[in-house]
Amino acid sequence: MKKIVILTGAGISAESGLGTFRAEGGLWAQHRIEDVATPEGFARNPKLVVDFYNARRAQAAEAAPNAGHLALAKLEAEFAGDVVLITQNVDDLHERAGMARVMHMHGALSGALCAACDHRWPAPMVMAPGDPCPSCEKPTARPDIVWFGEMPYDMDEIFDHLAGADLFASIGTSGNVYPAAGFVAEARRHGAQTVEFNLEPSQVGSQFDDLRIGPATQTLPIWVDEILAG
Ligand code: BJW
């Protein structure tokens, strides 16, 4: 086996204390999706959206990587082949666990984006509606987050990686949101083995060859040791 492609979702950060989206009491229970995770919601009420992401940025800064994040960083460091990590998460817990290469397909809390000219820069801890873009100077700064209806980042590169994967692992994601929910089908189409890690089978769970049920802090260290043992 030469290439492992991994997709992570909110479940891997749940045991670090960061809320998931669709759980009872999760992030969407407190906010309507269309209010905080769409460009239209941002246009209607930029303060609500900016405050939502300010709070998430503050929570993420307080959180620490858990044994699941650390196991994946160990895999990247010690596996003889290629390990590609794609995350839907906007926190930086993979990086803080020591992962060198992380593709943030839904953006990052650490980034700001100009809605007018697409310029990107590091976000301050607290953004305010109408913050100016440092490049074009318009008052159009927004969090660098991919909302519904927007194109996720790095899609060409991601589909190239999926086409070359020998093993595809999906961790802590509910399989509700596309295109990420379609990655298992794409990897399978190109001949990859597939494994899902979750507390329960996801919406696309039946498409995986293998299902590891349990908290990621427990299942991932065991899996990584199995892979490294060959
Ligand atoms: C544990 C655990 C533990 C808990 N251990 N596990 C109709 C059909 C198909 C598609 C569409 C459609 N209508 C519209 C669309 C497209 C739309 C979409 O998918 N909508 C669906 C709702 C149907 N998608 C888009 O608009 C995307 N863009 C797009 O499609 O562009 C066009 C395109 C075309 C062709 C190719 C490519 C693109 C953009 C999607 C943007 C999503 N943005 C969000 C919010 C922003 C980021 C943020 O604020 O953080 O991203 S939505 C939200 O969901 C967030 C997440 O990244 C994403 C996925 O959630 P995730 O990670 O799966 O979390 P949960 O909470 O759902 O699940 C957690 C899981 O963990 C659960 O299963 C638990 O059991 C598990 N778990 N603890 C292991 N300890």
Word description of this protein:
There is one protein chain. The protein has 230 residues and is of the alpha/beta class. The chain folds into 2 domains: 1-18 and 65-106 and 152-230, 3-Layer(aba) Sandwich (Rossmann fold); 19-62 and 109-145, SIR2/SIRT2 'Small Domain' (2-Layer Sandwich). The chain contains 10 helices and 9 strands. The strands form 2 sheets. The protein has a 6-stranded parallel sheet with strand order 3-2-1-7-8-9, with helices on both faces. A 3-stranded antiparallel sheet has the order 5-4-6, with helices on one face. Strand 4 and strand 5 (120-122) form a beta hairpin. Helix 6 (67-78) packs parallel to helix 10 (216-228). It is globular and about 55 Å long. The relative contact order is 0.19. Residues 9-11, 14-15, 20-23, 26, 37, 88, 90, 106, 145-152, 155, 172-174, 176-179, 197-200, 202, 215-216 line the site of ligand BJW.
Topology as a string of helices (H) and strands (E): EHHHHHHEHEEEEHEHEEH
Beta-strand proportion: 15-25%
CATH topology of the largest domain: Rossmann fold
Radius of gyration over C-alpha positions, nearest whole angstrom: 18 Å
CATH uppermost class of the largest domain: Alpha Beta
Identify the strand order in the major beta sheet. 3-2-1-7-8-9
Task: Give every kind of bound small molecule, once each.
Answer: ligand BJW
The CATH homologous superfamily of the largest domain is termed TPP-binding domain
